[in-house]
Write a structure and sequence with these properties.
By secondary structure, the protein is an alpha+beta fold. The protein has 3 helices and 4 strands; from the N terminus they run αααββββ. The chain folds into 2 domains: 45 residues; 61 residues, Beta-lactamase Inhibitory Protein, Chain:B, domain 1, CATH 3.30.1450.10. A hairpin with a 2-residue loop joins strand 3 and strand 4. This is Lipoprotein SmpA/OmlA domain-containing protein.
């Protein structure tokens, strides 16, 4: 009887350890899927900034989240007197948005 009880308890503790390990693996996989979905969304948005019609929707006072939703993530950002988001990979002459205290102050769309 004692042997059967010992075997049963050992089996239950091994089962609990397996469940904990499976839970950890599930959490890791869910985090990985979320990151891959984020990367996919951003890659799909990668060239949205080139569409001049989207730049026409920008207006003063928009926040960064609205700009990111509209144009996608910027290529680079600078923080000086104003925060500037640059969308063109090499030019600072066009395809940028200026922010003052988190709100759009000005912008210049892509050259045709």
């Amino acid at each position: 009887m004692l042997l059967a009880l010992t075997v049963l308890l050992y089996g239950l503790s091994a089962h609990a350890a397996d469940n904990a390990l499976l839970g950890q693996r599930l959490e890791a996989l869910e985090a990985r899927v979320a990151e891959l979905e984020r990367q996919l969304r951003e890659s799909r948005m990668g060239n949205r900034w080139k569409d001049p019609r989207l730049w026409q929707r920008i207006h003063r006072g928009m926040d960064g989240a609205a700009i990111r939703e509209l144009l996608g993530p910027p290529e680079r950002k600078e923080q000086r007197v104003f925060d500037t988001w640059y969308y063109h990979p090499t030019s600072k002459r066009h395809s940028y948005v200026w922010f003052d205290e988190g709100a759009v102050l000005g912008w210049s769309g892509p050259e045709p």
